[in-house]
Amino acid sequence: GAGVSQSPRYKVAKRGQDVALRCDPISGHVSLFWYQQALGQGPEFLTYFQNEAQLDKSGLPSDRFFAERPEGSVSTLKIQRTQQEDSAVYLCASSPYVQGAGANVLTFGAGSRLTVL
Amino acid sequence: RKEVEQDPGPFNVPEGATVAFNCTYSNSASQSFFWYRQDCRKEPKLLMSVYSSGNEDGRFTAQLNRASQYISLLIRDSKLSDSATYLCVVNISGGYQKVTFGIGTKLQVIP
């Protein structure tokens, strides 16, 4: 697609429910990131994929958070047993990867706004 | 200390004014620097990369000071449409794509 597509755009979950958020990156983009943005804060890094390999998951706040990108394109962020503090916008971003070029420009999706009641 | 620090503002400036934001970063090994713009309830979008020698894009000028570990963004002749949050973004490792965002500085341009 022309841009990064995320779904659902809005999700309301009851505390304790599981949720799955989907990201469809720009075709051909090797790198895929998930960020969490709470109200009034900057995006906080969650995890990074290079193709299907999850190279960094240091930002995942707990073992309730799990991300995958099995075929190196679409990615899913899953949150189990949601808590109120999980309420945030979850942003997915992709970028092409150029060896040794440092960070490349990220293109973000519109985000998935999760509200946990 | 946070890896990337910004004054959250808000900065309220009249149309036509010049405004500058600074951002400091903690890791001297940081290699790539960017300014992103985020409109209310929208996703961040790249405003400009920041190069060692400084760079300009129309009314926007970005500077990097490695010795003091800060980057700056200068906006001249502010427009109402410049109202947004400006996010400072830093990449720490050259071989790895992860970037860290600051909290963002909110700018409100008033008529």
**Describe the biggest sheet of chain A?**
7 strands, mixed
Low-confidence runs of at least 5 consecutive residues of chain A: none
**How far is the N terminus from the C terminus of chain B?**
37 Å
What Rg of chain B is obtained from the alpha carbons, in whole angstroms?
A: 13 Å
SS-derived structural category of chain B: mainly beta
What portion of residues of chain B belong to β-strands? Answer: over 45%
Portion in beta strands of chain A: over 45%
Q: Which two chains share the most extensive interface?
A: A-B, 26 and 25 residues
Q: What is the helix content of chain B?
A: under 10%
Instruction: Give the ordered list of helices and strands of chain A.
Output: EEEEEEEEEEE
Judging from the principal axes of the Cα atoms, what is the shape of chain A?
Answer: globular
Structure explained in plain terms:
Chain A has strands at residues 5-7, 10-13, 19-24, 31-37, 44-50, 53-56, 65-68, 75-79, 88-95, 107-108, 112-116. With 117 residues, chain A is mainly β. Chain A is globular and about 40 Å long. In chain B, strand 9 and strand 10 (99-101) form a beta hairpin. Chain B is mainly β and 111 residues long. Chain B is built from no helices and eleven strands. Chain B has strands spanning 4-6, 11-14, 19-25, 32-38, 45-50, 55-57, 60-65, 70-75, 84-91, 99-101, 105-110. In chain B, the strands form two sheets. In chain B, strands 2, 4, 5, 9, 10 and 11 form a six-stranded mixed sheet that branches. In chain B, strands 1-3-8-7-6 form a five-stranded antiparallel sheet, with no helix packed on it. Classes of the chains: A mainly beta (117), B mainly beta (111).
In short:
The complex is a heterodimer of chains A (117) and B (111). Chain A is mostly beta strands.
List its traits.
heterodimer; A: 117 residues; mainly beta; seven-stranded mixed sheet; 0% helix; B: 111 residues; globular
